[in-house]
Amino acid sequence: MSIRLRFVISGACLPSFSGRQLLLTVPLQQEDESPTTTRDLKNFIRENWPESMSEMKETVGTSELKVLKTGNLLSDESVLRDCFTATELGECGVDPGAADEMGEEDQKRVLMHLVFQRNCPVPKGKKGAARDNVAGGGGGCCVTM
After folding, report:
1. pTM of the shown model
2. Does some domain include residue 18?
3. What is the domain extent for residue 65?
């Protein structure tokens, strides 16, 4: 079984991509029959990044990806199937080989957030500088492109 997902993109991405949506159908089980984890999902996103968003291809490959569902950060070891409710699995799940009669945009999807994060090194001798600058936006943990 696979599940249809709708990601809202944010974080250290090109400003023109912030808020854009990425539609993917992701398998809930790997080829070796192990359950799909958030780490597997991130690899799937990198491998299946759409050509229509090719400007972000390099950023996808070099940035840390964070996945959130209902405001909660999913750890890399989280089993994807366990993150969804029975209703979400029923309405957004897809059986292998099933034909979709609706267009890509019209299908129900689980809403998630995909956050790009780039770490900036803190200059030597400025220990604690990241903490001191949080209010000013120069915290050193993320950058906006």
Report:
1. 0.76
2. yes
3. 2-120
In one-letter notation, the amino acid at residue 18 is S
How far apart CA 27 and CA 79 sit, in angstroms, is: 12
How many structural domains is the chain composed of?
1
Say which residue the tokens 């906006």 belong to. Answer: 144
pLDDT computed for residue 102 by the predictor: 55
Q: Which CATH number is 101's domain given?
A: 3.10.20.90
Tokens of 141: 């943990």
Report pLDDT digits (tens) over 84-142. 999 999 999 998 766 555 556 678 999 999 999 987 655 555 555 444 444 444 444 55
Q: What gap in Å lies between CA 93 and CA 42, rounded to an integer?
A: 19
Whether 61 is in a domain gets the answer yes
